[in-house]
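Input record (one chain):
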Amino acid sequence: MNSRGFRYALLFALALTEVLPIALLSQALPVLLRRSGATMQQIGFLFLAMLPWSLKALWAPLIDRLGARSTFGRYRGWLLFSHPLILITLVAGSFFDVPGLLLHHRAYALAALLWLTTVCALADAASHGLAVSLLSADERGLGNGMQTAGLMAGQLVGGGLMVILVGRLGWQPALLITSALLLLPLPGIALYKERPVDPSRVITPREVLALFRRPRMGRWLLVVAAMPIGASLMTPALEVMLVDRGLSLKEIGLAMGILSSIAGAAGGILGGLAVKRLGRERAFYALSVLCSLCLGLVLLNRVAVERPFLYFVISVPVVGVMARATMMHVLMMDRSRLHVASTDFTIQYTVQHVSRLLWASAGAFIAGHFGATSVFVLAPVLTLAAMGLASWLLDRADFEPSLSLDEGGPAPALEAAPASPLKNVS
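The corresponding structure, as predicted from the sequence alone:
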């Protein structure tokens, strides 16, 4: 039951089900609250519940440390514990008017949502570790592609589709239907045989922090922080632009929720295939250029009079962004030591996540002072600039999968990819 196809399917299902509740909280609930007459200040409190999800790097060492003692497997044990809890929490939530509770009994609702995001964060951190350990070096391209596709599918269901179902069926049937998807990975988790670990090896804080002392890690984390600059800078202005263009809430949901999720899933698969066919180094530069070109398409929004063309202009950039994100996640896995895989990967992911928030804040500030077009112009240019910075900081050795270490030594390395024709692009 540990075939390659089984492992890819398991990663897809895990990503879908772990991000579904987060999309419900961050995308669907704000829409439902606004429809119920909530103010922006009331909706803003909702995002406090996202704090545990943003602080996954704090939970990951706990996952690695305690999971090593589990008889069910280091990461499998956590997944067997957390996924049923997520399912039970969502089913229980279907019996309450959660949007109403958020309006009239905010403290109770916020506590319940904090519980939900904490369990989701634990599950996601465990999934990161499981993915690093179950994918060999040459499987990480498509494996991460499947994870990205699952993530985007979870956003589609928990965000856009949930809003549609609530409008047609009501809160309880809609949440019960979407909660049923939480059953998808449970058979796979139960059947997967995780390789045993040495329970006598104690994971200390010193060992966790050793990630930062690894050769060239500082350079790599700088690249991780810089690469999202273009796409993140654009995001706030893009959302405001849709409102300014007069799109209805339903049309915005279709564009940003459904079509963008489908485009992102396609981008994830494209990124995985690129890594497999081109090798890590050439895929890094090729997908960075593709991302810049896709972001540049947003400038066509000024001539996008018809809705279908406008939807195209908004969705295609997501293909490039998620293709590049998939490639970045492969390189993060390569730098993750197998005995602390959840910690190493999640720390890198958190650096990326925090940088996205900072770049998005900067983008909102720039757009507010100079207009949305300014960030639409800057986004593709700065994406190429970030690639140029990466080409200066990194060399061929940084793209070799042998960087991933287990308890006994380096993971098997692939044959080195030929030198990238884009290596010196800046």
